[in-house]
Amino acid sequence: MKNKLILSLLVALMGTAVGASAQVLDFGQRSQIGVSVGMMNYSGFMNKTAFTFKESHPSFEAFYRYDVVKNFNVRATFTYGSLSKDNGEELIDGTNRSGQFKTNIFEVSVLPEYNFLDLTTHKVSPYIFLGGGFYSLTGYQRNGADYDKPNNNGFNFRGGIGVRYLVNPNIQVFAEGSRREFSHSIDFYESSNSPSRYYTIQVGAAFRLSKLRLEELW
Questions:
Q1: Strand partners, 164
Q2: Which residue in 197, 167, 170 sits closest to 85, CA to CA?
Q3: DSSP-derived secondary structure letter, 50
Q4: 21 lies in a domain?
Q5: Quick check: is 80 in a domain?
Q6: 3-state secondary structure of 116
Q7: Residue 88's domain is classified under what CATH number?
Q8: Which pTM does this prediction carry?
Q9: Number of H helices and number of E strands within the chain?
């Protein structure tokens, strides 16, 4: 009786260990880490154009993505870059939008993503994403001098589109464009009638934490 009890306990422990191992493997196969680089561009009261290369700056993003189901992912991101606009002293469209600013920006966000095609059977898919996050402006300068900007952090909403390509089941490359809407102005005019936003264009790659075999994906 005692031996049967010990054997039962051992079987139960082995089952628990195997189950935990499978869960860890499944989590790793669903998990990706990645990086992307690109350009970001401010738009708002001081700049009515959506995207201009003259005022664009390099951006960097690192992220973690979890595959919830075949066509639905959730991505947690960290973004760093800088934004600026220099209008000199001229009137624009008959309105005083003069001056210059430059700032660094840090941002964290959570972005649900939807793939239009099933990436277990296709190697290419367009996708959309929509979410939000928190941002902070640092090293702010106004007209070439340090400036203690009010409302230098807050929340934003982010949405965009992209396309991803599976190099193999464990490596993806992608290109995407996105837009952020801010709860406060990025420029120093603090205009509630013309909210600030910025745009990004990025390319990057993602890598699975645990390898998938070819037959498990396609």
A1: 125, 174
A2: 197
A3: S
A4: no
A5: yes
A6: coil
A7: 2.40.160.20
A8: 0.81
A9: 2, 11
- Enumerate the β-bridge partners of residue 112: 74
Does residue 18 lie within any of the structural domains?
no
Residue 162 to residue 68: CA distance in whole angstroms: 19
d(CA 89, CA 182): 26
Q: Domain limits at 95? A: 32-217
- Is the pLDDT confidence value at 14 over 80? no
Cα 90–chain centre separation: 36
Q: Which amino acid is at 180?
A: R
Write phi, then psi, for 148 (nearest 5 degrees): -85, 85
Q: Which two tokens stand for residue 66?
A: 């979890």
Residues in the chain: 218
- Specify the amino acid at residue 134: F
Q: Is 217 helix (H, G, I), strand (E, B) or coil?
A: helix
Averaged pLDDT, 3-12: 44
Q: What is the pLDDT of residues 66-102, one digit of tens each?
A: 999 889 999 999 999 999 999 887 666 667 788 999 9
Number of domains in the chain: 1
DSSP classification of residue 51: -
Residue with tokens 């001098």: 145
